[in-house]
Amino acid sequence: MDNFTLAAQGSGANGPKMALMEDQALADIANRLYTLPFEEFIGARTAAAKEAAGGPSGKELAAEVRSLAKPSAAAWTVNMLVRSRPGILAELEELGGRMREAQEQYDAGTLRELGRERRAALAAAVDAAREVSTGLGRPLSTTLATEVESTLRALTADEGAAAAVRTGRLLRSLSADGVEQVSLEDAVAVPEALAVPAAKSPPVPLKTSELTPGPKAGKAPPAKSTKPRLVAVQPKERPASSSVMEKAKARAEETRQEADQAAQAADERETEAAELAEESTTLASEAKRLRAELKDVEERLDRARKLEATTAAEARQLRRAADKSLRSADLAHERVLRLGNTRT
Questions:
Q1: Residue 179 DSSP class
Q2: Helix, strand, coil shares of the chain as percentages rounded to 5?
């Protein structure tokens, strides 16, 4: 039984059940779409929306399918890595868990060691992503490789980011600054199906001096402090002032909105292009049929003209023969008249 049928059976008095099944149906469709080659997404989304529109869930599900955004090239690469190399992602998640545990325990020595381990693991993961992307016909550029690495680094720093990547429905790249939680806004298709772990109270970051072997190495600050988490991974960075941070956040948000608007415009234009491509295919088929009909008519016209020429030639020949016979008849008649006059 398909998802559309299941969604229909949840209607009526079971409104919440229907909504849940429709969400699952949408998630299933999204899971199929986000495993496709990058260039096939728009056409496949249009086809899926048409199929959904003809099912029991009707226009609502079709509209939700059409609203599924095309992933960025970097997000698509990470999605393909999730599908084809899940072990690499699992190793990075496990490493991220150990790093957070070391942070909570203020274990400076372990954090230094895990930092080196993460650099090596991220390099290997980016190499794997490059192999996967190239194998699918899209070589990974330096810029995209940087975005992929940023996303995988965020996975190790934040459980929510790890859950988002794990879905295989990532829409954009992620980034972690080691201070705040990774923003997942507009980052995952069908976020209703994403279970993000609840945020834990962040531990106090270790000071730079505590990351250097010495008398105070590994000393834990007061347990109830609410300073940002995972700063110990980047001990050389100095915290920005509030005004600079606010300006940076505002600019980042403005840039993000501009990017979202550009992406939405691109999606709309790609959808329009896909619809025009479909119409072009239909018209090309119609043109092919009409050309075949025209060719048949032209062949018949050519045969008719040849037959016309042949018939006209035969008619002229018969006319000449008839005229000759008439002249012969006239001559014979005149002879008969002359013979009659002679006898008289």
A1: S
A2: 70, 0, 30
* pTM: predicted TM-score of the whole model, two decimal places: 0.54
- Please check whether residues 111 and 194 belong to one and the same domain: yes
Name the residue type at position 197: P
Q: Is the pLDDT of residue 21 over 70?
A: no
Pick from 302, 331, 108, 98: which is nearest to 209 by CA?
Answer: 108
Going by the DSSP 8-state scheme, the letter that residue 154 receives in this structure is H
Residue 187 lies in a domain: yes
- Enumerate residues 6+ apart whose C-beta is below 8 A from 107: 218
Number of domains in the chain: 2
Assess contact for 149 and 174: CB atoms under 8 A: no
Assess if residue 277 is contained within a domain: no
Please report the pLDDT score of residue 258 as a whole number.
73
Does 38 lie in the same domain as 186?
no
Q: Please write the tens of the pLDDT for every residue from 78-110.
A: 999 999 999 999 999 999 999 988 888 888 888
Mean pLDDT of 250-264: 71
DSSP per-residue codes, 175-202 = ---SSSPPP-TT-BSSGGG--PPPPPPP
pLDDT (average), residues 205-229 = 40
Domain extent for 8: 3-66
- 33 and 100: one domain? no
- Where do we find the tokens 């018209």? 283
Q: Classify residue 82: in a domain, yes or no.
A: yes
Q: Are residues 57 and 120 in the same domain?
A: no
Burial degree of 73 (CB within 10 A; 0-12, 13-18, 19+): middle
